[in-house]
Amino acid sequence: MGTNASTPNGDRPLVRVPVPPGPRGLELLLEAAQRALDGTGPAIAPVPTAGPTVSDTYVSSVVRAVMGSTPEVDSEIAVVLATSGSTGNPRGVELTAAALTYAAPAIHEGLRPCWVAAIPLTSAGGFNVLVRALQSGVSPVAISALGGAEPFTADGFADAVFAAKGAESPVFTSLVPAQLPRLLADERGTEALRACTRVLIGGAPLRRSLAQTCRDLGIPVSTTYGMTESAGGCVIDGVPLPGVGVDILDPDSTGAGRVVLSGPTIARRYRDDPEASAEFFVDGAFRTSDLGHLRTELGETTVSIIGRIDDVVIISGVNVSISAVESVIADQPHVEAAAVVSAGNAGGDHTEPELVAFVVHSAGDVDHAALQTRVADRLGRAATPRRVVVLDRLPYLPNGKIDRIALVQRAQEELLGGPNQ
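Request: output the structure for the sequence above.
Response:
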């Protein structure tokens, strides 16, 4: 480790690092990240650059979140990353080098993998690929579509994986669930997945049907749970990494409650947001917005995530979990992707929330009534979406997460048209 590049008063300069899309972004960020992590350079705030898939508005919101009001951070902070902003404005998260580098030894399991960068480097998951590549000591390989440089394709992913195989190292990669169906639908994409030694899937829940397909094909998929505030995934296949604590706050009669993460991967605070920091970062732990429960069997504790605290809505006096509705729809035949949002009917007589389901369907259309009946049978009539909307693709933010704000706006418009006929 080098000498920390701090100012005389103990603060550390914070430098914005624009990250262009494509492999060039990986090249530019590698050196800055290395110097930020080993203390020989300033702290960094990676920021995407505007382009075909990244709007100026999104870039501006990330810059505001990560740069804050001063050009310095506390001396122990190495990197400031933005949260997804999928349900609101992004927040800047202040992370130490120790938090960012903690998970790699457990994930690498003694191997020196060649990492394939396939998700935006300005997200926690994407930046972790870069960090772990630095720890591995093997130069990473970027897909040509990295960061929205071009559309994500199975061929592009396969090209990167087989190029990484040339390093004669095990190939590791991180993906978001939305990328899997495209790869599994393509012979070369499936071959590339099978060529990997480890495929981490995070950023959103992985559909059970997709997970089963991967197992059947011998694809080494591992699900991860975590967020920017925990330096990315700190729970692998439901099992916390060594040293990571998972607790349930105020569990109900079923043992479900708010998930609280603790341990060496937890961020210090939100940048320039003392109120939110005090609410979520308590006694060195992070109080997530997720609901879950713990199960201990044969001495091993596993974590199951049920949904988000803020995705439970009251409809006709019944508590309805949006995540549960989404899961039922996503696991139906020919459904490639699904998202459910709650919105008010701005032009109707209803005063309580109503659900709208957005579906990407391989047949191009869907039997709305049948899908609504399936949800009602599984979860009750109150959970039935009022409308089911078929899309060519769901809207995604540059970090690979579903843009739920955009879907809520679309849902408001759909509700004005009344129920599906």
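The mean pLDDT is 90.
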